Here is the input.
Amino acid sequence: MSWLPQFFAPSYWWLFLLLIPLVIVYFLKLRRTRMAIPSLALWQQVVNDQRVNSPFQRFKRNLLLLLQILILLLLVFSVMQPYFAGTESNALKLPILIDCSASMGARDESGKSRLDIVKEEVLEIVNGLPPGTELTLIEVGASARRVTDFTDNKVVLREALEEMAVSDVASRLEDGLRLAQALTRSTDQIESVRLYTDGNLPTKMNPATGKPMAAIDFDLSFPIEFFPIDPAGRNMGITSFNARRTSTERWDVFVRVESDAGGGSDGKVTLYSNGEMMGEERVVLEAGESQRLVFRVDTNTPHRLEAKLTVSGHDALQSDNTAWLTLPVGRRLKVFCPPELATYRHALMAMEEVALEPDAEGNTSEASYDLLISDDVSDNTIQATSSLFVGQIPEDLQQLVTIQEVSSAEDAEEVEYPRIVDWKRDATLLQHTQLKEVLISDSPVKGEGVEDGDIEREGYEILAYGNMGPLILRHQEGMELDYYILFQTDRSTLPYRVSFPIIVSNLVNEAMQQASLADLQAPPTGVLPPITLPARREVACRVTTPAGKHQERTTTEEGVLIGVSAPNVGEYEIRQEGELVEQVGVSLLNSTETSLATVDKIHFNELAVEAAPERKTTNQLWWRQLAMAALCVLLIEWWYFQKRPAGVPD
Here is the structure.
């Protein structure tokens, strides 16, 4: 025991003074009325009582006094909170980071999750919290959140610990570390930070050993204690769910299933469309293996697909066994391109998946388009998801960039001939293109003192650079994507290069992606994808989570709902004025979380932290036992002196 220092603490020693009034009560003598009597022979008992009431005789064989002293001592000792010292350091302030990512919901065969085990360990720390020590609990999931301030209130800590729950997202441990770093810099009373996790962290290949290692891009500036939790057992889950339109009549749907590294598993994957079963495939995987399954559905009707994985035997994680994907009706891409851009129309007519307008007579039948290609400023009023403007400078850049024309040989001698000097080869529009020898007549020129950063601060990405200014720009705002070719392509050699039809094809493919007509991915947890609602205006709506909770949101002026938190797997319902207008299912789809892989060392930028070799024990308080003993003695006293049955000897 290590409670003697508290025994003499000034805050408690005065409690022993309570013995004084208890003893004084037994010094008091009985006061009787004085009377004259003829003889003392009959009053011998009175004489004996007076002798017993003398100061020293009062304590002889007085069991009641001894019991009351014992009760008082037990209560005083319990208030002093004696304890058996543990190995845990008595830091003044201790931040505790608790991983609440999806893998922490993995359950062993007894049904206990990894988070349940962490809660039990942290609860022991809370129960054994010595005086003067304060804790703060930090929940780490897709972001970090302080659940409590620094406090020694055990009731508050227990309630906060109980309310912690798993979110079906990947862990962003660096956010929790940044929050802990801010706490360590705000006070010098923090000796270290404690981290509880199952060790299922993003990994990268160690160049020295050739093996994967957990690496976090963070400069660790404080001591950290890393306590990993043992794995829960074998697991199999869906890690990818996507569809590709292979023709105007068919979607190919791909489902990837992976097994953890702990052991092989087998099961079956069932695909449902609008509630009806479309197909079923058997899956047998060894440890760490994966398999991709292919299903086919038609494009004639919209599909709300649901893939369900049923595993034989124990499956540690349930949140990765279901995935959702919505497929629209297959149709051709609606493109508006005026007859004046003959080179673009010629390239578009060769594509089967494109419905081109206006027709030969100049007629149009659509109110909006998936892709707009134009060199006329007035066409900005045409509603389109994706746009390409040729020979036009965006209105908000006209003070930064101007067009200088080279129209004659004399001009060519006076002005440096424009050329493409570099371009972003990984940009979607310019993939597989070669623009090095393209000749340009119109020269976009940056204004005096204008830098590339000035253009980028306006929200534009420069895709191609000329010797005098930017040549191709990309701008995306909300659901709308705009490209700008600042020079007239018909006054360049670009239409005569192989790269031109490739650029048009890349543009069409990206427009199909924007219109959800090509490759579609099932949305993962975290945040719902942008959703365009039927009311193309700003409107209030209610989002209902799979758990039945509600979020009140307002769409943008274009009727797009963005930024809706989706931390849990399931279907989210979106209602306007009580009417269901959209239903979106989100899935875990994370290979790292499904693998349940664990690490015993975390690599930071300049150092590595190994897992603690053993769990530290906290101080074991035993004031409860002392208080219970005092209660038992009190009950014995009450029974013996008040409720003792007749016939029981003294």
About this structure: The chain has a mean pLDDT of 83. The chain has five domains: 4-82+623-641, 93-232+596-621, 236-330+589-594, 333-514, 526-585. The longest helix spans residues 623-641.
